[in-house]
Known about the structure:
Helix content is 35%, strand content 19%. The chain is α+β, with helices and mostly antiparallel strands.
Amino acid sequence: MHSHPGKPHLLCATLLCTALLAACGGSSGDDSNASDPTDPPKASEITIKRDKYGTPHIYAEDTYSLFYGMGYAVAEDRLFQWEMIKRMARGTTAEALGADYIEADKAARKAYDAKTLQQQIDELPKADRDILVGWADGYNKRLQEVLAAPDSLMPKQFSDFGIAPTPISALDLVAAYFRGSLANFADSNSEVANLGLLSALQQRHGEQTGKNIFDQLRWKNDPASPTSIKESDITNVALGQPRQAGTSLASWTNDLATWAKTTVAALLPKGASQAPTKLVQRVSPEVINETLAAEMENYGGTGPDYFPRASNTWLLNGDRVEEGQAALYIGPQYGNNNPTNAFGVGLHGAGYNAVGTSHWGFPMIMWGANDKIGWGVTVGFGDTVDIFQLQINPNNPMQYRHNGGWRNLTKRTETISVKGADDVSVEFLSSHYGQIDSFDEAQGVAYARGRTWVGQEVSTLIAWSKMNKAQNWQEYLEQGSKIAASLNWYYVDADNNIGAAYLGAFVEKPSGHDFRLPLPGDGSADWLGALPFSKQPKVLNPESGEIINWNNKVSASWDNADYQFWGRAHHVNVINNAVNRKEKLTLEEFHETNEIVSHTEVNFNYFKPLLAEASQALAEGDPLKPVYEVLADWDGYSHPNAETGVYDSAAYTIFRTWLPKLVEAALRDDLPDAYWAQYRNASAASTSIGVNVALNALLGEEATVAQNYDFLNGESRNDVINRVMADSVQDLTARFGHATLNDWLSPLIPHTFGVRAIGGVTVNTADQAVSLPAEMARGTANHMVTFKGNQLDYADVIAPGQSGFVAPDGSASPHYQDQLKLYGDFKLKPGSLNDVQAVSTQTLNVER
């Protein structure tokens, strides 16, 4: 055991980093970075042009040099933030910040084995590996410059935290992508929590009644839930590789089906198709608490409402736009931070000519365009993770039953260094399904996490990067077929086509199993093989001329996942209504849709007719009548007023007081205490699971989710609505005193860019959080893509700004917050491909 008695002095740590960089020649520090010794050294020139907002445009002739330039630019803008992202991903935060981060480091290291990621990197073709190696080498080049001139170049946050920057490797980069993007958005699962909920309900209400309640709380499929692709529009496209000249379509399709099946299915555990054995139905409280605590750490809350689900997009074809141009607008939402999680960049050369933004600065443009197509992505919420319940051998806790015998768990031991304390040795256990998430000793079982995308983490990153070079729908889907994460991909091109594809590595499962619950891990319910890409929903040029998504269901035929419950009430309908406010929109109106969506209360329209009905049931002269009249006249828009600091709508205040009370009145008495927090949320920005359950309870027989249990306890819905409204008015009267009804105006909720990112890791000092006056339901960044006369017209905004750099003297980069007002005013800044107006230019010379 080693001890770290105190903070390292910044200069000492800087000298240590310099030595580390010198030892690895300034490279990324893993074997995958080594050049072929038989190759002669090759010199190349890299140019970085920055525009008036500090967006770097990288110019280079080969892939390695292009991404070398990107890594260098990322280190210029986000050195401290990437130090913390890397530590979050590799589980070394405690080494820098102390014992408070030990649990976060354990969670990071449990999520993957670094050796498997390194193996994937090593197996890449050199041309693909150059993307990762070049990025890391460029980052480390800038790090060398910072270490050589810390008095002017070292970001102030390093001295504030008493740490120093360290080199990055290709493995570090991939781990950051795994933990910060792939696993954050594609590793959600609630099967153990769902089993615990079902068990608690059955213990309290009896087996059948408990099951009825569970089916209403965690429904399988609501046919009234809005979809982004109509079944009649789905395009059956089997595309994994480009069709070669002289190959028949039938032969090509057959080859692709075989390719998809063998490429993906080879990675999956196989099982027979017999009926799965029964699960152990009880879940001990300790396991439930551990499961919910992990959700809280990763997502800031527990249950379906807290899994990332706030990215939105709308696309119209040329027939729906006054100017006759197809257009894409997208707002990816992956957290509001300072510095922003978005990194603006242009990539020019080596087959790339694209502009847009990347999550954190990963080596790809995730939302953007090239000279032929534009693209974007929202999280797909597909079922790509399963939990397997393992029966542990009572005589040997390192074995579990499988296929009639006992199979061994494997153990991996790692050491976590802790600043100011002894090292911590941690053991991680795995089954052939995947990592062990938890043990339920009282029930004699363990829970293992099986990911359909395991082994495809690096190939997913590479395919996404190479998609940036696609020139048409077929090339776009070719790379999309290799994406293992569950995503909705969107497409627009210079020929006025719009499209969408549902991506991910999906598997066939044995029939008879309830997908909301864990799978038996005894071999009776193993996956049966990969779902071919041809069976995943896709659409090109839908009949409606529109594609709209706000993390809603992709198509009617896809059930909910175990952790995501799409219902009748869904915030995507706010966009549907806004986009269809006119038969055709001008491009300006298309853009203005973002402001309408951002300030519209997403739940109100579902309850408006029920509120009107409840009002009609009241006697004339009832004191609630004027309250209902205010609500009847409301359009659902919150009307934020930055000058007065309030929402200029009493209806907003009334409804926002009434809705949470309604959810509590309907559900609180029937839910176990451990789960009530998952249903009490009634956000104005996104429809929640609790609101959907309460709405269905009010609808009764009119609900499209069967209501076999009466949450209203025999009370009529009008009586419930009016009783809750009377309680709300009583609270509001006490709150506002003798103010008239129209003066019941709520203070604005600020829109804050904080300083804590994934897993609670700090990416800035606490005093650097910034806010805009009013909360907005919109993307972390916003992008708009159209083509005018086949010429790209691209614009975006990332707030607070491109750079996170704060100098040692406390002065910030001019691009630290220069997009904050643009964002707050719903404006975009223009981007460019071929005519970048450079404010500064750098040249890097690289020999490799």
